[in-house]
Amino acid sequence: MQAYSIEVDHLTKKFGQFTAVDQISFKVAKGEIFGFLGANGAGKTTAMRMLTGLSKPTSGSGMVAGFDVIHDYEKIKTRIGYMSQKFSLYEDLTVKQNIRFFGGIYGLSKQEIRQKTDAILHDLRLSEVASKLVASLPLGWKQRLAFAISMVHDPDIVFLDEPTGGVDPMVRREFWEAIYEAAGHGRTIFVTTHYLDEAEYCDRVSIMVAGKIEALDTPANLKKQFGSQTMNDVFLKLVR
Ligand SMILES: Nc1ncnc2c1ncn2[C@@H]1O[C@H](COP(=O)(O)OP(=O)(O)OP(=O)(O)O)[C@@H](O)[C@H]1O
């Protein structure tokens, strides 16, 4: 068994002459909550697309969930979960239908889908709204449901792309409780966010600037290194 869920070495993506991701190298341990930060256009989405097997690196190497990002990228998709604000639930399906639909997409058996549906409805206390359209749920509930569904196939790693956008701090805090719970079960969490207070909740944080990882450490060490009181200040010092 490998100690790392993600291991990349000089991973690079070029679009023509432009280098969007420039030789990034890092390792993420199993069960770690890894924050992936950067200003707009720094290259986070491009990097995440390579890590999730959606885009082939131009050069460099890496292993994600035990699979090679160059040769075995199709297999990566079977062992990871993905949630973003943009790609989320079907609003015009009910809560239950969404769970069933994604369970099917992820290749679960009918029995597994039934079990997972019951477990998610119970754990998220959504049984009463199981037959309601997702469109009718508050945003915070939708996000918790989308997160649970992204783990319906028990993936080793969950990629969260700005999962808490648009909700108030209290609801974000609740979402982070769910993240901690998932990590507590040994799942690796790879999360991008624009909320710098959330960076404080991560075990380690990397900060990308213009395609390169300019800093990577625990929030406490980064604050010490940059003589800052907050991660917001660390971030501003790097991206300014
Ligand atoms: N398919 C593409 N072709 C050409 N350039 C691209 C392509 N995809 C991304 N880029 C460029 O690569 C750079 C990094 O983009 P990317 O979307 O990865 O940044 P990001 O850090 O995710 O930003 P944001 O937080 O705004 O989503 C940008 O300059 C973007 O214009």
UniProtKB/TrEMBL annotation:
It comes from the Bacteria. SUPFAM superfamilies: P-loop containing nucleoside triphosphate hydrolases. GO terms for molecular function: ATP binding. The keyword NADP does not apply. Keywords: ATP-binding, Nucleotide-binding. It holds the Pfam family ABC_tran. InterPro entries: AAA+_ATPase (IPR003593), ABC_transporter-like_ATP-bd (IPR003439), P-loop_NTPase (IPR027417). The keyword Chaperone does not apply. Residues 6-235 form the ABC transporter domain. This is ABC transporter ATP-binding protein. SMART domains: AAA.
